[in-house]
Amino acid sequence: MRRPSPRSVVLGVCALIALMISSCDFRVERSPDVLTTSLLGDPTILNPVLATDAYAQGILSYIYQGLLDLDIETMELVPMLAERWEASEDHLSYTYWIREGVRWQDGTPFTVDDVLFTFETILDPKVDAARLRNYFRNLKAIERVGDRGVRFVFTEPYFRAHIMCGRQPIIPKHIFGDGQEMNSHPANRTPVGTGPYRFAEWKTGQRVRLDRFEGYWGDKPAIRGIVYKIIPEQVTAFQLMRKGGLDADTVSAVQWARQTEDRAFNERFSKHRFFPPNYFFVAWNNRKPYFSDPLVRRAMTMLIDREAIVRELLFGQGHVIDSSFYLYGREVDRDITPLPYDPAQAVKLLDASGWIDHDGDGIRDKDGTPFRFVYLYPAESRLARSIGIFMREDLAKVGIDCEPRQIEWATLLKLLGERNYDATQLGYTGQLESDPFQVWHSSQAEAGSNLSGFADARADALIEEARRTFDRDRRIELYREFQRIVHAAQPVTFLFTSATLEVVDRRFTDVVDYPMGLDLMKWGIGPSAVLYEW
Amino acid sequence: MFSYVIKRLLLMIPTFFGIVVVTFAVVHLAPGDPAELKAQSAREAIASDQATQQIVAETRALYGLDKPLVVQFGLWMKRVVTLDFGTSFRDHRPVIDKIGDALPITLTLNVLTILIVYLVSIPLGVYTALKPRGVADRAATVGLLVLYSLPSFWVAMMLIVAFGGGGDWFNWFPITGFVSDHADLLPWYGWVANVAWHLVLPVACLTYGGFAFLSRFARTAMLEVIRQDYVRTARAKGLSEWCVVTKHALRNALIPMLTLMGTLLPALLGGSVIVEQIFAIPGMGRLGFESVLARDYPVIMAIATISAVLTLLSILITDILYAVVDPRVTFGKR
């Protein structure tokens, strides 16, 4: 037998591959009724009691529900699993009556036992829900009231108690209460809730898929399913969307400004911008000699060109702020004008504070300490790095030596926890009406989230009083006074609130912009060309 | 031979122990703590209050991180000898399952990559060795140097932009994942084609850099052999050039290349972090990388342990293969 020549073998293989590629058998059609989006990473765990990451919380919000819901239009609390509720005069106990006829996605009826079980689980020290447990430390008792009622009793009045109890997603007792250990329960990867979507599949590193729950008690959404593709690289996700592999996704500011302008893109996708509660800031460690003086901190704020940062680094997709409260919230004191970018004025402040270049080495100093500090930034944050470069240049001009230093996230957290840092840049996501206690109360300066070490007796009193105040208008007054104190002290330099930028395929109809974002529960589906999986 | 293998296997135990001790120490001594990360990775990045300290302590107790390092190591060793790598701190899944998900994907990628690299590089190396300093040799040198110098993250990004343009450019290949969703609805050959279609860009990224090293290696080995007397003898016998090169020269030139086998097994297992990250492929590289960032000790240790065992085994296999291929090498009593 003649052996085939190497050349013919190569040709044969090429022909075979070409045949495989060209035969259309390997493409799969994609349903137009299913919405495909992306996540930068896997959710850690799909259990609303154990999950701490935003990805899991986003997915779980379609599967699990709380006793109450936040109306996306009015931002008021509205009934969800609870039909009605009442609070006691002293604001120490809250009673909820649950809705009849609600079923879990496996068909089991939803009962008061599930509510009791959820909160007992949270309070169980063996459960890996330490962060959540922290919010319920003042919860004294959870009692059953008749067949359909449940009462929460607290030891101290707290204005957020109602929203905390009401918004906590409820987990099913008949599944998690089977005696298996909660932390490694199999249902943590195959959740069963009462919500409009039920869990279908989770392939680690590839996708999470949800299907519409046909037995849902409320109004069923038009979208039949949601697929979250796990794509760690934002560039890749964006290109996949352009190819038609994704229907809706968040995009970065640079993509929004530079890569979504062409006609082809806008014919296919609609663009949406909104400002959910978040704030970015540079934290100065007020315990360090150079940042202990409010004059110096005011000077630092005036040396950072925040408008330029928003313009150059965020491509205009942000708002300069001077407060940790929600940008559009009534709490924000709009009479406070953010300090301007004014290096000349800053130099005067620095001179007045006694930080003068005594020894003539070009660096300001005081009591023998040179004004030389390290600015730490997490390795993955391009924004924080760019701010560092801005600062080094601008501060060098006025005789301050700032050394930007890149550091891994876990290590940064450890150093911040030890308060072993000079300055860093962080972003927090907040709530519609956040409680400043965690971040600004002096009791949190040693081991809590008060990183800068801000301590002011009057501010403390205001924060504490607000926690016990149930009249929102009165709370707003207290918070405005609090903001004026923070503004004068500048313990941190507030930078901006950044926009969330979303792009949605035009085959979805009724895509309404709310201040907090989009609500796909209300979308419809229009006609579209045949879609393929990529 | 048999006693030699046994001896070598026994010698592997202390080496393995050494590797594992060092890895364990490095992983645990690195700053950052899974319990703290967990308490603080929350909505408000660092937000927590003093109760968090208690919480961190609770979480550490839950994970057994409150015990002295030596005790932790002992407990870990005890489980590992029964092949129990524990459960991940991040999602409480058994570590073996997580590796089981990622490994087949990385294996497919790496087997293909290594196959292509070898299939291209060795013929190329041999060919350039036949006419050293000829036009082909010089062209190959320059071309390979250029390929070798291109960073893979840049090439990956360029490929994604070029092949992902939504019809602007070449909308030919998928840029994410290993296989399409719902591809299991396809007949098996459709499924295979779908996977092959997905692997075009990542494999292209993984291979081009490997050509330079291996083809240079093959060229050098071939140049050594081609000057030998027995090659001249073979030519003198009147054998065809094809026969001389493949039968007499190439076989002998392959012996030094066995050394490279030593790195092959662990290389099969270890994924490329960059390529897997950019092309959203859920392989071993991403698993390892994400575990390190989250300080997921059980996963990190399992990957390190498996790599250590494979490295040691492949070194042993390489040594044995020397004896098989080269009759001048023997082990044990003479």
Topology:
The complex is a heterodimer of chains A (about 525) and B (about 325).
Chain A (H helix, E strand, L loop, with lengths): L5 H17 L6 E2 L3 E6 L14 H10 L4 E3 L6 E3 L2 E6 L5 E6 L13 H12 L6 H6 L3 E7 L3 E6 L6 H7 L5 H4 L20 E7 L3 E6 L12 E6 L3 H10 L4 E3 L2 H6 L4 H6 E6 L3 E7 L9 H10 L2 H7 L5 E3 L22 H11 L11 E2 L2 E2 L1 E7 L3 H16 L3 E7 L1 H9 L5 E7 L7 H4 L16 H12 L3 H18 L2 E7 L1 E6 L2 E2 L14 E2 L5 E2 L2
Parallel strand pairs in A: 2-11, 18-19, 18-20
Antiparallel strand pairs in A: 1-25, 3-4, 5-6, 6-8, 7-8, 9-10, 10-11, 12-22, 13-22, 14-20, 14-21, 15-21, 16-17, 23-24
Helix pairs in contact in A: 10-12, 16-17
Chain B lengths: L1 H28 L4 H7 L10 H13 L5 H13 L13 H36 L4 H15 L2 H12 L24 H20 L2 H17 L2 H8 L4 H21 L2 H6 L3 H6 L5 H10 L3 H29 L9
Compose a concise summary of this entry.
Chain A is α+β, with helices and mostly antiparallel strands and 534 residues long. Chain A contains 17 helices and 25 strands. In chain A, β16 (365-366) and β17 form a beta hairpin.
